[in-house]
Amino acid sequence: MAFEHYIRKGRKKLRFGYTTGTCAALAAAAATRMLLTGEPVDSISLMTPKGIEVDADVEKWGLDGADGSVPDVKPERAWAGVCKDAGDDSDVTDGMLICARVERTAQPGEDHLTDDERFRIDGGEGVGRVTKPGLDQPVGNAAINSGPRKMIEEEVSKVCEELSYDGGLSITVFVPEGEKAAGQTFNGNLGIEGGISILGTSGIVEPMSEQALLDTIELEMKQDGLQTDRLIMTPGNYGVHYISEKGLDRLEDERGVGIPVLKFSNFLGDTLDMLPDSGIREVLLVAHGGKLVKVAAGVMNTHSSWADCRREVICSHTACCGGDAELCRCIMDAATTDACFDLLDDAGLLDDVIGSVLGEIQNHLDLRVGGAVRIGALMFSNERGTLGASPEAVRILAEWNEEEKGVSL
C-alpha cells in the first residue's frame, strides 16, 4: 500500500518514505503474530517515533512446524518481509525486502528474564556486522542501530501483550539482497562488513535530505579520530586517485598509525565544523582545482548549484598578479579550470596565480576552523598533477614525510 505523506519544498511536493528500521520493526511484529497464532498476516502497522503511522503489506512470509490447521499446535518459527519505501529520497535500499525471523526461546512464566534476555535481537543474512569501534553498536554486534532495536522491541512487546505471551523470543533481521547492496554504501569505510545497516531514528525518511550523508561523514571522522589525530580530506574519487598515485595514503603518524582519507563530497564547510569534536588536530585538504578554487571566495559548499565562481576567482587573482585585460577576458571565456591554467602557463603566471589563490584558500580555512585544527590545502589537476600547496600544507607534509616514506609530489 502506498505511503501517502508529503512535504512541500519550494514548488515541489515530495513524498516521505520510511526507514529500514521501521521495516524491520514491522516485519518483526508480523512474524511474532504469526508465530503466536499460527496464522498468516497480510498487513501490519506501527506508529513511528516521528508520530507518523506506517501501514505496510507483508510481501513474503513463512511458518515452520505448523500452519494453523492442527489445533493447539503452534509453529516453531515464523518470518515476514516488508518492502522498504524511500519515498522521493530514493537510495540503494528502496524497494528492498527487509525481513525478520522470530522463534521462541525461554518458556512463558520464567520471571527471571531480563529485557535483553526476553527479546534477543540479532542480524542474519545481508545485515552488516560491526568490526570497528565508534559506531552506534559495539564491535561484533549486528549493524542494527539502537533506534530500530527499540522500535523492534516495542512492537514485538505489544503483540506479545495482546496475545498473552510472556516468554522469550529470538528475533533475527535479515535482508536477502543486503550483502550485494552494501557495496554501494559507506559501510565498508565505516567497518561494517557483510551487509547493509538497519537505521533510522525517527522511523521516517524525509525526502531530499542531505543529513544522512553528513551524519555518515561525522561518524567516519570521529571513528578516524579514535585512531589518530591526523586526517587527509578530499571531495571525491579524483582526490582519492591522486592521493593513491602520490602515495599520500601510505603516510603514518608518529606511532605508525596510517593517516586515514575521508571523502566529504561537496560539504566542506559542514565537515570543517565537525573537526573540533572529532579528535582530529591536523588536516591536509587535497582537492582538484575545479573544486578548491571556489574556497578562495569563501564558498564552503562546492556543488555547482550553490556557486560556480571558478573563473571569477582565477581572473581576479590573475589581475592581482599582473595579468593584463586581454588575459583576464580569455580566462572569463574559458570553459574549464584546466583551460584557465593553460592560459596562465602560456602567460608565465601559473605559479604566481596558484600561489595567490592558495593563500586566500588558507585564510578561509583558518577562519572556518577558528584555530581548533591545523589545516593546509593542496591543489592538483587531472591534466597537470600537483599544482601547488599552501604554506601550511607544505609544513604539514614536511613533518609527516619526515616521519615516514619520503613521499614526493
Give average pLDDT, whole number: 90
CATH level-3 fold name of the largest domain: CbiD-like
The main β sheet shows up as:
5 strands, mixed
Q: What is the molecular shape? A: elongated
Count of discrete alpha- or pi-helical segments spanning 4 or more residues: 14
Give helix % range.
25-40%
Characterise the protein shown here.
With 409 residues, the protein is α/β, with parallel strands linked by helices. The chain has two domains: 6-200, CbiD-like (2-Layer Sandwich); 212-402, no CATH class. Helices cover 36% and strands 21% of the residues. It has helices spanning 20-37, 115-118, 146-162, 178-182, 187-190, 211-225, 237-246, 268-274, 289-292, 310-320, 325-333, 337-346, 350-369, 391-402; strands at 6-9, 12-15, 17-18, 43-47, 53-57, 60-64, 77-83, 97-104, 119-123, 129-130, 169-174, 192-193, 204-205, 230-234, 261-263, 282-288, 374-381, 385-389. A five-stranded mixed sheet has the order 6-7-8-11-9. Strands 15-14-16-17-18 form a five-stranded mixed sheet, with helices on both faces. A hairpin with a 5-residue loop joins strand 4 and strand 5. Helix 1 (20-37) runs parallel beside helix 3. The radius of gyration is 27 Å and the shape is elongated. The model has no long low-confidence stretch (mean pLDDT 90).
Concise account of the structure shown:
The protein is of the alpha/beta class and 409 residues long. The chain has helices at 20-37, 115-118, 146-162, 178-182, 187-190, 211-225, 237-246, 268-274, 289-292, 310-320, 325-333, 337-346, 350-369, 391-402, and strands at residues 6-9, 12-15, 17-18, 43-47, 53-57, 60-64, 77-83, 97-104, 119-123, 129-130, 169-174, 192-193, 204-205, 230-234, 261-263, 282-288, 374-381, 385-389. The termini are far apart.
